[in-house]
Design a protein that fits this description.
134 residues, five-stranded mixed sheet, alpha+beta, Nonspecific Lipid-transfer Protein, Chain A, single chain
Length: 134
């Protein structure tokens, strides 16, 4: 069953998916880096939401919605308007293409992300499955 993005229920479902998906665990076994999804407001979604995920060696150690007054120092910050996140999470927009065309802005070690494209793509697959209900 699909879960509405972005909220705590979606984030918890993604954490559970990442921690139980064998393919993701294998592909992400060397990944070290926490990240924030920064969902910027747009005409479809009027508020900013920040989601934090602590990803480490194929597991998600922690995940939560960042409160407005919290300052998070994560290895990666991924910014995009809600509509671009929605397109990525429904498979309409490839995340690598989104980064290359600045539809998804990356702060952090971009070279590390590029060296780990299989991990990025499989993370996206897991997030898409949570979103569309596979």
């Amino acid at each position: 069953m699909p879960i509405q993005f972005p909220n705590e229920e979606w984030l918890n479902a993604l954490k559970d998916k990442l921690n139980t998906d064998e393919k993701y665990a294998q592909l992400a076994s060397k990944w070290e880096g926490d990240l924030c999804f920064i969902i910027e407001p747009d005409e479809e979604f009027p508020q900013q939401v920040i989601l934090y995920l602590d990803l480490w060696h194929g597991t998600c150690r922690n995940a939560y919605v960042v409160q407005n007054d919290q300052e998070i120092a994560s290895a990666f910050k991924l910014n995009a308007p809600y509509k671009n996140w929605a397109r990525i999470l429904t498979g309409e927009l490839n995340p690598v293409q989104a980064m290359a065309t600045m539809k998804l802005k990356v702060r952090g070690n971009y070279a590390y992300i590029m060296r780990n494209i299989p991990t990025v793509l499989d993370f996206t697959r897991c997030a898409q499955e949570v979103t569309v209900g596979k």
